[in-house]
Amino acid sequence: MKGVLALLLLSLCCCLSGGVGDHGDSEGYQGTGASLAGCLPDTCTLFRELAAMKERLGTMDQTQAALKESLGAMGQKLGAVETKLQASESQVEELKKVNTAQEEELKALKKSLSAAQPKVAFSVALRDSGGGIIGPFSTNTPLQYKRVFSNTGSSYNPATGIFTAMVRGMYCFRYSMYSNNSGRPNSVVSLMKNSEKLVTTWNTDDSMNVHESASNAAVVQLEVGDSVYIQLWASRVVYDDINNYNTFTGFLLFTV
Hints:
This protein has helices spanning 2-17, 26-116, and strands at 121-125, 132-134, 141-142, 147-152, 156-157, 162-164, 169-180, 187-193, 196-203, 211-222, 227-232, 238-240, 247-255. By secondary structure, it is an alpha+beta fold. Helix 1 (2-17) packs antiparallel against helix 2 (26-116).
């Protein structure tokens, strides 16, 4: 814009100087007057245009100043946003560290709980070989399950058929009974806790149904030293072979 103003001023000077001649006679003055008369209206127009351009230039300067101020404000806001973003990133990193620490604590706690929780479970079958009936006996008799599938915690004794609680807790027990009683006494067995009868299965003496099975289960709380076993009633029998029809299973649910 300043270059344009300079060009306009140069044109004005050329216009004014063009009307002055080298001769001093009256004709020369008349020529000069005619030239000035022809040039002055254009000069006024030029001055008006210069004034308008100056005004526009001033407006542009104000606009430029306003833009600079606006850009400065935007720069400050951007700086504030960057500061907040950096603070947020720092908080995220801190949260990640806290989360990692909590995960490690949780793993350690799970490991500790797993180590503290005793593991007790067993599963056994009546015969470890052969087949045939067991019983009858003159008195109620604990059945000795000889074939051991599992005995975690060694709480079941295959020599006696008795499970002995090593820890206080809630336990689940289940058993199955099979009878092949053609011409023989029927089968009755009970799940026992110490001398307490918990649940019982019964097979009637029926020549029409010589192959019958039954099962039962219970969840009970045991104290340390309590015994659980399957009792065959006096004068009753059960049948088993390599198919393992008669089973006895138990496990610790949780300590109390």
